[in-house]
UniProtKB/TrEMBL annotation, chain A:
One of its GO terms (biological process) is iron-sulfur cluster assembly. Belongs to the iron-sulfur cluster assembly SufBD family. PANTHER family: PROTEIN ABCI7, CHLOROPLASTIC. Residues 119-347 form the SUF system FeS cluster assembly SufBD core domain. It holds the Pfam family SUFBD_core. SUPFAM superfamilies: Stabilizer of iron transporter SufD (SSF101960). This is Fe-S cluster assembly protein SufD. It comes from the Bacteria. Coiled coil: none annotated.
UniProtKB/TrEMBL annotation, chain B:
Residues 4-245 form the ABC transporter domain. Belongs to the ABC transporter superfamily. Ycf16 family. Keywords: ATP-binding, Nucleotide-binding. The keyword DNA-binding does not apply. GO terms for molecular function: ATP binding; ATP hydrolysis activity. The lineage of its organism: Bacteria, Bacillati, Actinomycetota, Actinomycetes, Streptosporangiales. This is Fe-S cluster assembly ATPase SufC. Pfam families: ABC_tran.
Length: 374, 249
């Protein structure tokens, strides 16, 4: 791909609020080829019956304003325009949206927790969340997905000049849940965004976190941890679009897989456009395959359209537990299962330290423990 | 009183036979040095006894106090009282020294040490080996220098207190100061008199600090000569040449 050619990533450039602008995916499209469409329960082709329920419950920090608004609220859809059919379907189908506002110059004193609880995977539900961080404001947000659902939603993180937003999104669904979600962060001048995604539960989860910058100085860290069990399809599709100078991004996703039909997909797209001089970016994905029959697809795409970058790199590796690590621990008397547990913990350890909400860190730790005990 | 008894041990890696009938007995209170040229099978002996999956025992027996080690898993052997200090200790990302040692001590002693006692024991052990206490929070062996790795192996030796320790080229890559510190650790371990040491080395240098009771010369996958400490002096003077030609004959 030379500089004259259109960016590969043009597939992300098609955006519309209208479902009809996106053909029904067949599974041959680049953006859908890894996703088992037959397990989407009609979210992609309009056949999903919209009678399902996901209850949204917000436990907000006292400084933060929370509203439930209708479709006509002018603030919605400003930071993000849907980029694929399911996203457009969600945008045109949700009834109520949750808007969280962190007022200007305010630092929220504790995390705001949004719990999304599904009441069954028999029918579909759509949702929309907007988190608006006003200039120089600072907040921690937790999105906690539980229960069972067929759910598609869009989450907009709009971080204004000098603002800081730290998000933990926990996909802790029941085994039969289907969740297709877009998380988009739009960062203003000198804004800071930290996203920590933890995906553990669900039959199929396809989460697409993306970042765009409106002014220089934006700084995004996107971290993810997933544990894929037998039969699960957990897909993370990242896109960082550097379109202004002197912004930074770092993507680190790590996953472990075990059991027949466990399938992880990680797509990491980073575009550094011609205007985005001084960009500093790095993306990494690692997969630890614990058993036969599990599969990880990892596709980093770094597209650089300017010669003036501060740093740009990517790495991807998928492999088995290292026998030498296990041997060393066993040679000190540590039984195999415990040695395996220590090594897998070690694999995730640096990521876990980044979770700034202690209760969530503990919960993720014990969830990983529970996965290992299976 | 413990005994490690190796009888007619044959070991292969893939199709290639490396050990060709090793006989060796190590008792508590004894220090045996195994010396030999590179490629003579010294390290294979160490790893095979510890149970590394790469090495296949094709015949022979290894008994620790009459128990068949070869029937045991790697961790069972360690809990039975065998310790292998490795020539190339493994880096284990994300597992801190402190967490690793506490897990190992818990496994070997059969119960978790109390946190405060463990911290004290760890600090004492690290002090004795001139290891910076900050290492407790570092990932096991990750980014350690060669000398730091070897000190860390001896720290484990002193904390786990095995019946029989196999030290595989613990002296290689150490400068004189580190060699002295590590040797003192080995000597503290030996001092009780109820532990046995099998010291594998290419060079006689460490034997000035850790005096062996018996010296075995290894060549071509077996012991070709045995003697007392004076044999080491002879090797220092004459090298291995006599044995390598003998072994290939």
């Amino acid at each position: 791909m030379g500089l004259e050619t259109k960016p590969l990533s043009t597939l992300h450039e098609k955006s519309s609020y209208d479902v009809a602008d996106f053909p029904v995916p067949t599974g041959r499209e680049e953006e859908w080829r890894f996703t088992p469409l037959s397990r989407l329960k009609g979210l992609h082709n309009g056949t999903a019956a919209v009678t399902g329920g996901v209850v949204v419950d917000v436990e907000a920090a006292p400084e933060v304003r929370v509203e439930t608004v209708g479709r006509d609220d002018a603030r919605l859809g400003k930071a993000y325009t849907p980029a694929d059919r399911v996203s457009a379907q969600a945008y045109s189908s949700f009834e109520k949206a949750t808007v969280v506002t962190v007022p200007k110059m305010t630092a929220a004193s504790r995390p705001t927790v949004i719990t999304l609880r599904g009441s069954g995977a028999g029918a579909a539900a759509y949702g929309h969340i907007l988190v608006s961080v006003e200039p120089m404001a600072e907040a921690v947000l937790v999105l906690d997905h539980r229960g069972s659902a067929v759910y598609a939603d869009n989450v907009e993180f709009d971080v204004a000049e000098g603002g800081t937003l730290k998000v933990v999104s926990l996909q802790d669904w029941d085994d039969d849940a289907v969740h297709v979600s877009h998380h988009h962060a739009r960062l203003g001048k000198d804004a800071t965004f930290r996203s920590f995604v933890v995906t553990l539960g669900g039959d199929l989860v396809r989460l697409s976190p993306s970042v765009s910058y409106t002014a220089p100085g934006g700084d995004a860290d996107l971290t993810g941890l997933y544990f894929v069990d037998e039969g699960q399809h957990l897909e993370h599709r990242l896109l960082v679009d550097h379109s202004v100078p002197n912004c930074r991004s770092n993507v680190t996703y790590k996953g472990a897989l075990q059991g027949d039909g466990a399938h992880a997909v990680w797509i990491g797209d980073v575009i550094i456009r011609a205007e985005a001089e001084g960009t500093d970016t790095y993306e990494l994905n690692r997969n630890l395959i614990l058993t036969d029959g599990a599969r990880a697809d990892s596709v980093p795409n770094l597209e650089i359209l300017t010669g003036e970058v501060a740093g740009a790199g990517h790495a991807s590796a998928s492999g088995r537990l290292d026998d030498e690590h296990i041997f060393y621990l066993q040679a000190r008397g540590i039984p195999f299962d415990e040695a395996r547990r220590l090594v897998i913990h070690g694999f995730f350890a640096q990521l876990l330290e980044k979770i700034e909400v202690p209760e969530i860190r503990e919960r993720v730790l014990s969830a990983v423990e529970a996965e290992l005990a299976r | 009183m413990s005994t490690l008894e190796i009888r007619d041990l044959h070991v292969a890696v893939g199709d290639k036979e490396i050990l060709r009938g090793v006989d060796l007995t190590v008792r508590s209170g004894e220090t045996h040095a195994i010396m030999g040229p590179n490629g003579s099978g010294k390290s294979t002996l160490a790893y095979a006894v510890a149970g590394h999956p790469k090495y296949t025992v094709t015949s022979g027996t290894v008994l620790l106090d009459g128990e068949d080690l070869l029937e045991m898993s790697v961790d069972e052997r360690a809990r039975a009282g065998l310790f292998l200090a490795m020539q190339y200790p493994v880096e284990v990302p994300g597992v801190s020294v402190s967490n690793f040692l506490r897990s190992a001590i818990t496994a070997v002693r059969g119960e978790a040490p109390k946190l405060r006692e463990f911290a004290k024991e760890l600090k004492g052990g690290m002090d004795a080996l001139s290891i910076d206490p900050a290492f407790a929070q570092r990932n096991t062996n990750e980014g350690f220098s060669g000398g730091e790795k070897k000190r860390h192996e001896i720290l484990q030796l002193e904390l786990l207190k095995p019946k029989i320790a196999v030290l595989d080229e613990t002296d290689s890559g150490l400068d004189v100061d580190a060699l002295r510190v590590v040797s003192e650790g080995i000597n503290r371990f030996r001092a009780s008199g109820d532990t046995g040491v099998l010291l594998i080395t290419h060079y006689t240098r460490i034997l000035r600090y850790v005096k062996p009771d018996f010296v075995h010369v290894f060549a071509g996958g077996r012991v070709v000569e045995e003697g007392g400490p004076e044999l080491a002096d002879k090797l220092e003077a004459e090298g291995y040449e006599a044995y390598t030609s003998k072994a290939s004959a």
